[in-house]
Amino acid sequence: MKILVCGGAGYIGSNMTALLAAEGHEPVVFDNFSKGHRSAVEGMQIVEGDLADYDLLVGTLRQFDIEAVMHFAALIEAGESVKFPLSFYRNNLCHSEILLRAMADTGVRKLVFSSTAAVYGAPRRLPVAEDQPTEPINPYGDSKRAVERMCHYQSLTGTLRYAALRYFNACGAGAGNTLGEDHHPESHLIPLIIQAAMGRRENVKIFGTDYPTPDGTCIRDYIHIEDLCRAHLLALDKLNGEAEMVYNLGNGMGYSVRQVMDTVGQVSGRPFTVIETGRRAGDSPILTADSTKAREELGWTPRIPDLADIVEGAWIWHNKHPDGYGD
Fold this sequence. Notes:
By secondary structure, the chain is α/β, with parallel strands linked by helices. It has helices spanning 11-22, 54-63, 78-83, 85-106, 139-155, 189-197, 225-238, 257-268, 292-298, 307-320, and strands spanning 2-6, 26-31, 45-48, 68-71, 110-116, 161-167, 169-171, 204-207, 219-224, 244-249, 254-256, 274-277, 286-287. The strands form 3 sheets. Strands 3-2-1-4-5-6-10 form a 7-stranded parallel β-sheet, with helices on both faces. Strands 7, 9, 11 and 13 form a 4-stranded mixed β-sheet that branches. A two-stranded parallel ribbon has the order 8-12.
């Protein structure tokens, strides 16, 4: 298929683009490169542009005869969304509306949407299943929930088939450990700890040590980037027969911040400085996934579930790219 990958030069988008190409599809990267990296999509078809540009989107969809869209173009830092909510609603919600309108006006009906476990807020029961209420506690999660609702109502018109994939914590390096995490600024836990272990960062912080968890730190569900991307291919295929789908994507196992730090220490064999500080606004104490629905309906199962294996691949990538992608 000819697939437009919005945000295709970012961490998840570039790994998805590589997998699509490896599986015989024809990905076209659409990215404004505010967060993405050109070297992560070297050799791919690229359209540089912003989702705010309706005319460019329409022209791109028509020029490349696009058959489906994968949408990864979003601001993702939950803490930042609390400080700058309007930026998150504009980028994540308003720009998604422009994309959906461009798709409708060009007859492109299939969308795989990058959603988030943040739509659940502070879950009422764990692990989190798709039937739980969506009660976001930060603008990031709320903006993603709003896009899901917009897709739902658009699907009722018969002009859209979509899958909303609610990620837990994507991590690791994909494509043979050649595509890793390089955010500016970096906000994800595993690369932050790795940078500290490499001596590229003075310390790593624990935001809150008084949560109702065994060691007082937040617990998250970590899923390898390649496992995440494979689920997108399965969801895309299932869109041939389904109008709308919502799936959690996670390992179903939770690791605390301290446990992740211990794992990086074991893999790297290096010490690093840890600073304990107060809680961040918008952080849930525990988020772990019940991915039974994705396993049963998509036939999906994580192939790299072990945290040490995930960290090892990320460690390899960061040591080969101490300055990130450099672009």
